[in-house]
Amino acid sequence: MRKYSPEEIIFLQKIVPGRSFLEVSILFNKHFGTCLRETEIHAACKSRGITNGRDARFWTGHNSWNKGRKGIHCSPATEFKKGNKPFNYMPEGSERINTEGYVDIKIAEPNKWKAKHRSIWEKANGPVPKGSVIIFGDGNKMNLTLDNLVVVSRAELAVMNSLGLIYEDAEFTKTGKLIADIKIGIADRKKESRHRSAKQRIKTKRREANAWKN
Fold first, then answer.
1. How far apart are CA 21 and CA 38, in angstroms?
2. Helix axis angle, 170-213 to 154-163, nearest 10°
3. Cβ atoms 16, 24 nearer than 8 A
4. C-alpha of 193 from chain center
5. Parts of the chain with a pLDDT under 70
6. Sheet holding 103-108: strands in order across?
7. Are 136 and 119 in contact (CB under 8 A)?
8. β-pair type (149-153, 132-136)
9. Residue (of 121, 26, 108, 120) closest to 74 by Cα position
10. Is the overall model pTM greater than 0.70, yes or no?
């Protein structure tokens, strides 16, 4: 609980009678440069036996003292005003490094950002193909040259990661992408071959079953 100085107590004793505690809180805050709530002022007065002697009820035709006012403004000079820009505002074209270590660039207001490496690649090549991602050929997220940006499918990326085909040299990484693509092609053909063999075995068993019945 806040401690009140003797000067503050004397001030309250003078201004409380006949006033609402909302009015008292505004006068008190203005006089002492504080920002106390009405409930805090009320509690301080109540604990010290300081009353305003007013009937808190409203009656027909009664207008409150603060009609037409909006809230308590403890420090109008420092309050945020409509149309003002916050101190950390960043205009379009600004750049930042996100939590994952990638460079983002602001592309629109009020707060639309995009990965800069993706923006660079798409300006040169169009939208990134569905199911694909852009990786850095040399593994350096700060190297945003177009030659260092390599588009790979998620399947290719999985193979490249598992076989260690991402290097510190962009050309080697691009070769790693080709190797991954070949590996995926071989795996797909083997899968298709197994599928055809399974279908053939099923057909053979059905023919044998029909021959046995006949």
1. 6
2. 110
3. yes
4. 47
5. 1, 54-84, 213-214
6. 95-97, 103-108, 112-115
7. no
8. antiparallel
9. 26
10. no
Structure-token pair, residue 213: 């019945």
Is 95-196 a domain of CATH 1.10.10?
no
DSSP letter (8 states) at residue 85: P
* Cα 87–chain centre separation: 19
Looking at residue 1, its pLDDT comes to: 66
Determine the Cα–Cα distance for residues 179 and 33; give it in Å rounded to an integer.
72
Paired strand residues for 112: 108
**DSSP secondary structure letters along 104-149:** EEEEETTTEEEEHHHHHHHHHH-SPPTTEEEEETTS-TT---GGGE
Given a contact cutoff of 8 angstroms between Cβ atoms, the answer to whether 79 and 86 are in contact is no
Q: How far is CA 81 from CA 85, 90, 98, in A?
A: 9, 18, 29
For the chain, the structural domain boundaries read: 1-54, 95-196
Three-state DSSP at 106 gives strand
**Partners of 105 in beta bridges:** 95, 114
Cα dihedral value 142, 148, 149, 152, nearest 10: -120
**AA letter at 209:** A
Cβ density class 161-186: b for 16+ within 10 Å, e for less: eeeebbbeebeebeebbeebbebeee
Helix (H, G, I), strand (E, B) or coil at 110: coil
Half-sphere exposure of 105 (CA within 13 A, CB side): 9
Burial (CB < 10 A; 0-12, 13-18, 19+), residue 160, is buried
Is there a contact between 129 and 111 (Cβ–Cβ < 8 Å)?
no
